[in-house]
Amino acid sequence: MPATAYPRTDRSTATRARDRMSYDRAAIHAVIDEAYHCHLAFVVDGEPRLLPTLHIRVGETLYLHGSTGSYLMLAARGDGLPVSVAITHLDALILARSQVHHSANYRSVVAHGTARLVADPATKRRVLDALLERIATGRSQDSRPPTDAELAATAVLGLPLAEASLRARTGGVVDDEADLDLPHWAGVVPVSTTLGRPEPAPGVVLPPPLLSGPA
């Protein structure tokens, strides 16, 4: 059974505001699962690259998918590819009386490790099904499955969640006492991600699927 917290490493240990850091496994999983997409950083031929992409967590592995001919998937062949992944939720804007104390409430997970291609076709199908279910409940059954050719052209990349951390800010305005009587509005502006009303494609008369929404 995995430990309740991820180990701290040189890369995952904060140099400031350490009280905002957490390595709790369940809290990190919750941030990952609530998000639809992440940002993946990697290096190809000495050049840094950053890729926004959909993701799905299955157990202790974060999975991404893409074309087998993409820079990312080509670079991950063989022994894998060192990567870092960031997932961030903006929860509120913090408006203070002083400009320097404006801030934001957020939850941000960063994971480091070596991502490797998934070779087993059955595992690839399970991961892609899980991604579809994250988008809409029952969608893996209510859509045409990939052909063998489509599956072969789709690469799935797995990143073991062995080195991960969560940084978060909560709470309200933190103004200097000397600024409390200034005639400026101060407070919290909540920010949230919501799904809009489904817009059917031309010719579709069926009812929309049950969207999963933020976890």
UniProtKB/TrEMBL annotation:
Q: Where is this region: Disordered?
A: 196-215
List, as start-end ranges, the regions of compositional bias called Pro residues.
199-215
Q: Which PANTHER family match?
A: 5-NITROIMIDAZOLE ANTIBIOTICS RESISTANCE PROTEIN, NIMA-FAMILY-RELATED PROTEIN-RELATED, FLAVIN-NUCLEOTIDE-BINDING PROTEIN
Q: Which organism is it from?
A: Natronosporangium hydrolyticum
According to UniProt, the name of this protein is Pyridoxamine 5'-phosphate oxidase family protein
Any Pfam family from its record, for instance, is: Pyridox_ox_2
| UniProt xrefs under InterPro entries | Pyridox_Oxase-rel, Split_barrel_FMN-bd
